[in-house]
Design brief:
Elements lengths: L2 H13 L2 H8 L3 H15 L4 E4 L2 E4 L1 H25 L5 E7 L1 H18 L3 E7 L2 H9 L5 E4 L8 E16 L9 E2 L8 E4 L5 H12 L5 E5 L3 H9 L4 E5 L4 H5 L3 E6 L5 E9 L6 H13 L4
Parallel strand pairs: 3-4, 3-5, 7-11, 8-9, 8-10
Antiparallel strand pairs: 1-2, 5-12, 6-10, 6-11, 6-12
Helix pairs in contact: 1-2, 1-3, 1-4, 2-3
Family: Belongs to the LysR transcriptional regulatory family.
Organism: Cellulosilyticum lentocellum (strain ATCC 49066 / DSM 5427 / NCIMB 11756 / RHM5) (Clostridium lentocellum)
Protein name: Transcriptional regulator, LysR family
C-alpha cells in the first residue's frame, strides 16, 4: 500500500470510471485496475461493485475513501511545508455567514500581522456546506454557528451568539416588548436558506410549539433579510450583533419570546483525523486569545 495506490483509488471514486481516472492521472487504465486490485487483495475487501459496466463504491470503499483523503492531504501538506520552508503556507478557513461577515475579519487581520508567512483563504457559506467541505478535506478548520452532527467532526466552543426576533416599523407587531411564540402563528417569516443553522434552530422551536409560519423571503444574504424586515415584509431572526445599529435607529424592533432562550454556540470545527500543523495551531491559539468580536 503506497501513496500512489491511494491517489489512484481517490481518483476512481471522484471520477466514477477507471478510464476517466486513468486520463486524469496520465496513466493507463490497466494500471488503474491493477492498483485497485492490489488494494482489495491487501485488505481482503471489495472497494467497488461492478454492475452493468458501472462502478458503485461499497461501504468498505467509503471508509477507505474518508481515510485516503485525509492521508493524501496530510502528505501533500508535508511535501509543501518541507520543500518550501521559505515560502508562504496556506490555511483554508471556513466560516458561516454571521461569523464570516461580522466577526472573523479583525481576528484574521491580527493573525496575518503576527504570521506574515501564512496565507489565509476564507470561505463563507452555510453550516451544511462547511461540514461537507471539512469532511472532504477542502477546509482545514471551520468557524460554525449551527449544529454540527457529523460524527467525524470535532468542535470546541468559542463564544455564545444570542439570537433575536425582530420586525420593522410597518409590521403589526412592531412595539411589542414580548410575546408567546404562539403569537407568531400565521405570520410571514423572512429567513435564511435551507442548511442554515439559524433557520434550523428557529424552526425547531416553532415545531415544538406547533406554530406555523409561512416562509415569504428566503435568501443567503443577511443584509437582504434586514431590508425585507425593515420594509415590514415579515418576522426575521438575527444574530443580535448583526442588527445593533438598526435597533439603535429604531428601524428594527426586537420582540422577546416568552419562556424561550434563543442562543447558539459558535464553535471551531475540524475533522477528528486532521493533522494540526504548526501554522494551524498558531491560528487556533490566536482565535482563543483574541476571540471573535463584532
Amino acid at each position: 500500500m503506497t501513496i500512489r495506490h491511494l491517489r489512484i483509488f481517490v481518483a476512481v471514486v471522484k471520477e466514477g470510471k477507471m478510464g476517466i481516472a486513468a486520463k486524469s492521472l496520465f496513466i493507463s487504465q490497466p494500471s488503474v485496475s491493477q492498483a485497485i486490485k492490489e488494494i482489495e487483495d491487501y485488505y481482503g475487501i471489495k472497494l467497488f461493485e461492478r454492475l452493468s459496466k458501472k462502478l458503485y463504491i461499497t461501504e468498505n470503499g467509503q471508509l477507505l475513501f474518508q481515510y485516503a483523503q485525509h492521508i493524501l492531504q496530510s502528505f501533500d501538506e508535508m511535501e509543501v511545508n518541507l520543500n518550501h520552508l521559505g515560502e508562504k503556507v496556506n490555511l483554508r478557513i471556513g466560516a458561516t455567514i454571521t461569523a464570516g461577515t461580522y466577526m472573523l475579519e479583525p481576528m484574521i487581520t491580527t493573525f496575518e500581522e503576527q504570521n506574515p508567512q501564512v496565507k489565509i483563504k476564507v470561505t463563507v457559506n452555510n453550516t451544511y456546506r462547511l461540514q461537507e467541505m471539512l469532511l472532504n478535506s477542502q477546509l482545514d478548520v471551520g468557524i460554525i454557528e449551527g449544529e454540527v452532527n457529523a460524527p467525524d467532526l470535532v468542535k470546541q466552543s468559542v463564544c455564545q451568539d444570542p439570537l433575536v426576533v425582530a420586525v420593522g416599523k410597518k409590521h403589526p407587531l412592531y412595539g411589542q416588548k414580548s410575546l408567546p411564540i404562539t403569537a407568531l402563528q400565521g405570520h410571514h417569516l423572512i429567513c435564511r436558506e435551507e442548511g442554515s443553522g439559524i433557520r434550523s434552530l428557529f424552526r425547531r422551536h416553532l415545531e415544538e410549539h406547533q406554530v406555523m409560519m409561512e416562509v415569504k423571503w428566503e435568501c443567503t444574504n443577511t443584509e437582504a433579510i434586514k431590508a425585507a424586515a425593515i420594509a415590514g415584509q415579515g418576522i426575521a431572526v438575527f444574530s443580535a450583533r448583526t442588527i445593533e445599529q438598526e435597533v439603535k435607529k429604531e428601524i428594527l424592533h426586537i420582540i422577546e419570546l416568552e419562556g424561550i432562550s434563543l442562543s447558539r454556540q459558535i464553535c471551531v470545527v475540524s475533522h477528528k483525523d486532521k493533522f494540526l500543523s504548526k501554522q494551524l495551531m498558531s491560528f487556533l491559539d490566536c482565535l482563543r486569545v483574541n476571540g471573535l468580536k463584532a
